[in-house]
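Q: Could you fold this chain for me?
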Amino acid sequence: MRAVVFEQFGKPAEVRDVPDPEPVEHGVIVRVEATGLCRSDWHGWMGHDSDITLPHVPGHELAGVVEAVGYRLTGWRPGDRVTVPFVCACGTCPACAAGDQQVCERQTQPGFHHWGSFAEYVALDHADVNLVAMPDEMEYSTAAALGCRFATAFRAVVQQGRAVAGEWVAVHGCGGVGLSAVMIAAAAGARVIAVDVSPQALDLARKFGAAECVDATGVADPAAAVRELTEGGAHLSLDALGSPATCAASVNGLRRRGRHIQVGLLPSPDGTTPVPLARAIALELELLGSHGMAAHSYPGMLRLVRSGVLRPELLVTSTITLDATPAALAAMGTAGGAGGVTVIEPWT
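A: Sure. Below is the predicted structure, expressed as structure tokens.
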């Protein structure tokens, strides 16, 4: 099969032929019809993830068709149209038994723990726990956008963030996760403030329901701008980008007893990130992480998608080929950009 491979962190990847994967006894091989290009893939390529061993094929948000199944698998068969959370759970650890597969103690992630979906085929383990059946009418590109960014945003806003109608919700960073969060929070009836450095991304945020937008390059203190617009601060705020600046701005933009959700990864040389905890103590803020969403939680989200309340297909702003992927992966580290989701179609 053809796949995007890199041999060194931060060095150009290339498209080349590699062996086809084989299913393990409880797994499947999926023919990849569409896979998203995510900032998390860029973090992996840069060497920010200790689980990656070289050489490596990235890619973790995907949709496709089951091609082959392991001999112990009973719930899936070749030809099934599927997607999958980016966290693949074991199904048997205490976290999984509690229904918290998104923080499985023995989780694997395609594109990180093993070769991923920037390829014509990908292997997925413990398929009975992790695969999600795609609605018949759903496009592969739409389903690919769900697996990491949209599902992550859904859980961050609805389950972890507990957004309700009438609240102010600030979203810092309007890439794929952030725009998903804007759309989901607006659909919940919240008043959304989008914060970004890109005018194009802020235009998309307005399209997806943001009531207010803050251009972070045009104000001295984005957190102060959020507090002013909300007359005291957001009830809920998400750092959807992942940087010391956006994390601090998200926390500092909250009102008393507000809720901060950290979604974006926060790589740093020493593994730590400064967080304004003095404000968290003084205002009794909640600081929570959010890490994907378990497969069993997808039906509620999919019902809203099928009803038209949520429109993840609108987030797909670019479709590229496998051959164009190495350059697009490297460009993910560039500040700004047009926002939205880029989808790779490996068979084109």
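A (continued): The chain has a mean pLDDT of 94.
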